[in-house]
Amino acid sequence: MPRTTTLANVLAAALLVATAAAFVVIEALKLEKSPLGGTRVTKLFSPVCGCSTSRARITFRLRHNDRVTVSILNPSGAVVRTLARTKPLSKGSATFTWNGRNNSGRLVRDGLYEPFVDLAAAARSFDLPNEIQVDSTPPRLTIVSARPRVIRGKRDGRADKVRIRFRVNEPATTSLRVDGIRRLLLRGTPLAQKLDWNGRADGRLLVGRHRLVVVSRDLAGNVTRSRPIAVVVRAR
C-alpha cells in the first residue's frame, strides 16, 4: 500500500476517534446538572418610587458551595454595578438586590440591563433568563373632562355624580382620592377610562366642597397625580 494512502487512512481513523470522543464529552455535559438553578429575576422596577417595587431581586439556587460574583451589565455589555463578590457561598438559595444605581452610586438611565453571575469554582458564567427594565419615568396623565362640578342628593336617597374622563400613556392602575382619601379604584390598567363619584362615602352624602385628585400608578411603581378638581356636593 502506498505511503500516502496509509497516512490518509491513519488521519481518517484519528479524525473518527476525535469526533467520537467529542461526542461523548458533549453528551456527558448535557447530562451534567447545571451548578445554578431556580433563577428568578425582577423584570421591571422603579428605583425612585419609594414603594415595594423600588428594588430588583435576583434569586438563584447553588448546587455546590462556590465563590459568586453577581453583576449588572448595560446594553453594551459593560459592568455598571457589581452587586456581590462573595467568599465561598454555601449551596442553596441566594438572593441579591439592586437599587438601580451604578458603582459610583448614581442612578442608571432608564432601559434594559442584564444580570450576570460568575461561579469561580465551577468555572462557569451565566446570563440570567430575563433582562431587568429600569423605569423611573411617571406615566403621563391627562384629564379629558370632569363634570358636573356641582352634584346634588335626591329625595330617593341617590345623588348626581361627577364623571371624570382621563387618559394615560402607559398601562397604569388609577384611583380617585377625595380630600386625600381613596374612594374609587379601577380594576386593570386601562389607558382611557372614566371615574364616577356620587358624592357619598360609606353610604353617607358628603355635603360641602371637596378636592378630587386622580392618581395613576404604572407597573414599575411610578405615580402621577392630577391637579385638584373642585366639586361641591349639595343636599338638594
Would you kindly provide a written description of the structure presented here, covering whatever features stand out?
The chain has 236 residues and is mainly beta. It is 12% helix and 47% strand. The strands form five sheets. Strands 2, 4, 5, 7, 8 and 9 form a six-stranded mixed β-sheet that branches. Strands 11, 13, 14, 18, 19 and 20 form a six-stranded mixed β-sheet that branches. Strands 1-3-6 form a three-stranded antiparallel β-sheet, with no helix packed on it. The longest helix has 29 residues, at 3-31. The chain is elongated. The N and C termini lie far apart (116 Å).
Q: Which CATH-level-2 architecture of the largest domain?
A: Sandwich
Shape designation: elongated
Number of helices: 1
- The tally of beta strands, per DSSP, is 20
- Helices and strands: which structural class? mainly beta
Strand content: over 45%
**CATH domain class of the largest domain:** Mainly Beta
> Which spans of ≥5 residues are poorly predicted at pLDDT below 50?
20-31
Question: What integer is the average pLDDT?
Answer: 88
CATH topology descriptor of the largest domain: Immunoglobulin-like
Query: What characterizes the major β-sheet?
Result: 6 strands, mixed
In short:
The chain has 1 helix and 20 strands. It has one helix at residues 3-31, and strands at residues 36-41, 44-45, 56-62, 68-73, 79-85, 92-98, 111-119, 124-127, 132-134, 141-147, 150-152, 162-168, 172-178, 181-185, 192-197, 200-201, 204-205, 208-218, 223-225, 229-234.
